[in-house]
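Our platform keeps sequence and structure together, in a single record for each protein. Such a record has a labelled line for the sequence and another for the backbone structure tokens. This encoding replaces a full spatial description with a residue-level series of whole-number codes. Below, we set out a record of this kind in full and without editing:
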Amino acid sequence: IVVLHSPVQFVVTDPQNRKTGFDVASGQYLSEIPGAGYNDKGLGNVETGQGDPDPQKVFMWARPLAGDYMIDLTGTGDGTYDLEILTYDEKGTLSAVPPFRAVAVQKGERQSYRLAYAPTPGSTPQVTGGFAGGGQRPKDVNRFLTYVKPTESRTTLPAGTSSYALTVFY
């Protein structure tokens, strides 16, 4: 289960390269992962009938495969998001990744996480940045230094930009 509270949309890619979520670039919902679901509508206000202006986004999959999952986010506004990841092993035991709180995001900005999942009882999910950096020493440095942002080797910033927030896993 992946839950985001924020001004973002996201797509999850499974170990077989199938995708489910909302792709901001194309404006389309993807539902390629069998048995998985994505909800970005929220519950809204049941008393007034008004929709939630910034509902949480939820990805759920009842029978995930072992392997690496990519969680690719795109900012739909400026602000911060909270990310929660919960997994269950094949015996139904819950493992929760410590939540990521108040992560900065800007409209149109892309960020990515990699989730390593195994259904084996007692295994713990591992989360790293989705981009390894492609540095000069990929056999050792890229194993402990990854990035949520940037998501690729070359980053282009708008003219006049004087700062850039970097999100690093170390």
